[in-house]
Amino acid sequence: MATSTPKPRARNVADLKASILNPSLTSTYETSFVFPGAVSRWLNNQTGVGDGITFDKLEKVQLSCREAALPDTNLATHEQFNDFTGVTERHAYRRQYNATSSFTFYVDVNYDSILLFENWIRFIVNEDASNDALSNNNYTYRVNFPNEYKSEIYIRKFEKDYKGINLEYKFLNAYPVSINTMPLSYDASQLLVCTVNFNFSRYVVNTKKTGFRSSVL
Asked: Would the pTM count as exceeding 0.90?
């Protein structure tokens, strides 16, 4: 049965307010990093660079996250030719995830943002931070097992009134893979920021209103 074409209709100001005049803002969010247990124990034992940057610095670093990005995803498609003359069809067969997500942090005078993630990376490769080891001509290292350094990251998107539906993105099997360069200059001073890039396998989206409703992606 043929469907009828929708016709234009008059809308009042109340309709506009309810639909397009209540936009979500990019500046209302928070991030949360779950350090693996082995990494947090390693930090608290003062075996990392920076004279033992302890795990209790994490909350301050999370609050200093200046910039994050909600993850992107796409469908891989297969092209189908010649079923219809002159028509190329595309059918989905797999969902794909961008494997990397970046987070930018303000750096305070104690350099906690830099040192926390430097230590996480140092733990991944099981690197000895002592000067004696680094000066050894036979210096070697062995990467730790993935289940020791992979963990979870959360981005929670909410609105300034803390009402309505909030979004929570949970990144699975996440770990830092790189830290971007941080230029220094004698020109006009600017805030020092640290950008850390994480690998992850996939993500899960939760919506929160009166409780969590999970949608596995």
From this structure: no
